[in-house]
């Protein structure tokens, strides 16, 4: 089997432990692109962050931002989630007395709302369930997210692949955090870095010995010959 697409998370997967893009990860992403493999960036980050990273790293695939709520294909941006749902949920959570500090990157977000990690995700989840709010609370290694529960990284990747005429059997995915689990339901070959959550490692076809971008580079190098344009 040869693979035509790599869909990868960013934070914790192609970064280093300080959140900086890992140069070895960039090197192997460029080798894939030079081989004709399209790399799709999939992240909880806002779209402008992904657009800048894609430009300077050199990826050519679609961009999936805000945990699947925003997608950019060939320069055309679509919102796949309802922005009002997260706003309404935030109002309910604050009214319930839950202390919430918003992340500064919300200025660039279109659908989901990012919350700093000092908030209690269990407390937030309890209110969401009790009030039957139509949002998900996603926990990552850098922040929490409130987002329309109808969207996910994996669900949006599935739609993007269909638009591209790509079969899931032709796709490799890589990630590290719980919000990457839906990606692992789509790809044919799943890669997890050593710092990945146990839930991801248990579903991975390969788990790196190295952590963060070092582990990502290790895995891509290992299976590089299985990619084909």
What does this structure look like?
The chain is an alpha/beta fold and 229 residues long. It has two domains: 151 residues, Rossmann fold (3-Layer(aba) Sandwich); 66 residues, Hypothetical Protein Ta0175, Chain: A, domain 2 (Alpha-Beta Complex), CATH 3.90.1070.10. The protein contains eight helices and eleven strands. The strands form two sheets. The chain has an eight-stranded mixed beta sheet, sandwiched between helices. Strands 6-8-7 form a three-stranded antiparallel beta sheet. Helix 2 links the parallel strand 2 and strand 3. The protein starts with a strand and ends in a 6-residue tail after the last helix.
CATH structural class of the largest domain: Alpha Beta
Helix content: 25-40%
Describe the oligomeric state of these chains in a short phrase.
single chain
Strand order of the largest sheet: 5-4-3-2-1-9-10-11
Looking at the structure, the CATH topology of the largest domain is Rossmann fold
Strand count, sense and barrel status of the largest sheet are:
8 strands, mixed
SSE topology sketch:
Blueprint: E1 5-8, H1 23-34, E2 38-42, H2 47-57, E3 63-65, E4 70-73, E5 76-79, H3 83-95, E6 113-115, H4 121-130, E7 135-139, E8 144-148, H5 153-164, E9 171-175, H6 181-184, E10 189-192, H7 198-201, E11 206-207, H8 212-223
Keywords:
single chain; 229 residues; alpha/beta; Rossmann fold; Hypothetical Protein Ta0175, Chain: A, domain 2; eight-stranded mixed β-sheet; three-stranded antiparallel β-sheet; globular
